[in-house]
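Sorry to interrupt, but I need a hand with the structure work. I would like you to pick a protein and set down its sequence and fold. Please put the record directly below this note.
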Amino acid sequence: MTLTTPHPATPAGPAGRPPATGVGVAAVPPENRSSGRADRKRSGRKGRAAGGAAVEAGGAAADVGGAAVEADGVAAADVPVPLPPATAFPAAVSAVYRGQLARARVARVPLLFVAAFQSLGIMILLRGIVDIDDNSAAASVVAGSTVLVVAFVALNLLAQRFGALRAAGALDYYLTLPIPGAAVVLGTAASYATFAVPGTIVTVVVGALLYGLPLGGLWLLVPVTVLAGASLAGIGAAIGLLAPKPELATVAGQLGMSVVLFLGVIPADRLPGIGRLARDLLPSSYAVDALAEGFAPAVDWAHVTVDLAVCAAVAAAALVVAVRSLRYAGRS
């Protein structure tokens, strides 16, 4: 019998085979394993360092972007916003006129009838007192009653309207619009005057027929109404804008209308000295004289021209005062 002995260089295992290291896996020496772990640690540290540097770079970029946005915001805030172009004066007057006309329609009944009935009642009352043969006195009564219709709207109602606008704080709306202040005054006055035009026509025609006056000079009603209305509207607007309370504006407007009534209806030659002085200072008295001159058999056109020129000058001055009063009311 022959005995088999293992090879001396090969350690025998349980079955005499070499120790298994895994299928297809190469055996790694221990020194190589320790060096690989060290390499991985160094690579991890380098990756973490690179990631931290990237995060810091991103934060720096974000800071730069935020600073740029903030700088843009500051630059945008420093740039003034351009104002819209100013509206042309006729267009501004038309816009205010349409807006106020829509509001004034609510009060169209008193505007159409109350002022006219008041003037018609005065003329009928004085018909039994005034000598109709005195053409000058009769013309003063008719002309004064006609201008009273204008004063009722321009002084009384307009003072109330602007007083109410100031009390309600509605003037801020008009002051923020790109329109001149004169357009606000004229547009509001024109809206109320629209409903007063029929009253003036009825008053002057009925008065001329009632007192037996000629109708040939009735065309003077147009410039007289426009200029007297503009001058009294400026005064009425200033009263309403400067009055601290709307009730005071109402009282002042009514007092002004009463002054126009008494100094306009009564002939100038029948007033005392202080009355004549007050009449000369009242702009509506020049409108009364111009309209009364139209009822004369021989019209003094030079006198009419001077009276209308005075009304125009007072209207321009009153409009300037009303505009400044509007700005003052907006600041207060």
Summary: Residues 1-36, 49-77 have pLDDT under 50 and may be disordered. The radius of gyration is 48 Å. The CA atoms of residues 176 and 330 lie 10 Å apart. DSSP finds eleven helices and no strands in the chain.
